[in-house]
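Run log, item B.
One chain of 506 residues. Sequence copied directly from the ordering sheet:
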Amino acid sequence: MLNSTINMAVKYYLSKRYDRIVQMTERPDQLQKSLLKEHIAKAKNTAYGKMYGYASIENYNDFKAQVPIIQYEDIEPYIDRMMHGEGDILWPGTINWFAKSSGTTGSKSKFIPITKQNLYQCHIAAAWDAMSMVYHQKPDARMFAEKSLIMGGSLQRFTPHNKTIVGDVSAILLHHMPKIGRPFYTPDFETALLPDMDTKIDRIIDICLKENVVMLAGVPTWSIVLFNKILEKTGKDNILEVWPDAALYMHGGVGFKPYKKQFARYFPSDDFNYMEVYNASEGYFGLQDEFGARGIMLLLDNDIFYEFIPVTELTKDHPNALPIWEVSQGVNYAIVVTSSCGLWRYMPGDTVQFVSTAPFRIEITGRTKQFINAFGEEVMVSNTDQAIATICQEQGANVLDYTVAPIYFDDKESGGHQWLIEFEKSPDDIELFCEKLDLCLQQLNGDYEAKRQKNIALKQLHIKELPRGTFNEWLKAKGKVGAQNKIPRLSNDRVYVDEILAFLNK
């Protein structure tokens, strides 16, 4: 009874909060310009602000002219000073929390500052916005009456400076979860923050099987591991037999298209909903505002000022970035963010395309460093995700994870693409699967199709099927186990693929 009363009270609050989200769509330019002005005013006396003359910046054009577009390597020395306790560097004050992210599985981790303002006005604010969207579309939702299961990461002290704490952004959010949400979360926080994923999953199962879970969230790859272990332990056919009231899965981090078929098996109900969120270490950028609709709505009043660089500009010394009020639909952009975590005109590495500008909705098309253009084919993650999803559906197969790299020319043969795939359910005929996948990729990408003509520049793609668990074991060997560590979908060189093949041979 008490939980139902709390759920009704939260539902009322969220209905009022939803009005604020509507306002984002009505005055986006004004909100974005106001955010930028506030950030510049607060940071004008920081080391970075003084270096780039923030005190003299009066408008966006000044900001664009005076402040450079950067990547992580450009500000790494500043962040290192912050992690060692120095204040007033990229943002006023001393920062104690840093989100650890590798983006993909590169050997070098990134540490993104999480300031108090950024935590509450971006990440936590967006989490409430997500709940507002859920209750607006599903008025009978019971997230604040039953339990939600969220797959998170872990935290640790930064040993050179003990006051600094680093970890996955999901773990930082769990640690700072508002008190009202804690009784409705499972498992307990000690379990949720365990660093070893195998131990964590086993404990989650022991605890959560006793709960009535109505909402689940996490990266699809790790969620699949959890679901399979639950079904193995319980002997049930699907997750709805375990948690009959489960009604929503929130996902992000990787493209969901290759996993749709698996999830339909775990949740075989037309009433079960999916919600894509865009929650990166650098900020909680957006969320799907309509179940089943195309695109993620950017949250334009949640502490982030956005710019967008046409991908065709990325090779230039001074690429031209556009504010939200100058973007167009159908153009592939690299996203650029400015926020109160001390990121100034920073490229997180994602590429997006606008599917709508009223409101501003995007699709994530890939990564600025995840593409294959070894032969002029310009293949993006959105192409490979769509192709693998289409052919799996057609051929009755399920893919757990994959990565692709070029096969370079030699004296006798054309180049090509090598796919390393872990199947949950392998196709009956792998050669036919290769052929169909190649043809589908040609239909999705005209440049790839042109290079495939008569096998002159590119021969048919090749698939090497990996034993189940290979990718996870490779991640473990690299010390990259956690919710924020993902297999790179595409690479323009063979570094990852050759590493994985060498690891497999061992």
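Observations after the first pass:
- The two ends are 58 Å apart (CA to CA).
- DSSP finds 17 helices and 22 strands in the chain.
Flagged for discussion on Thursday.
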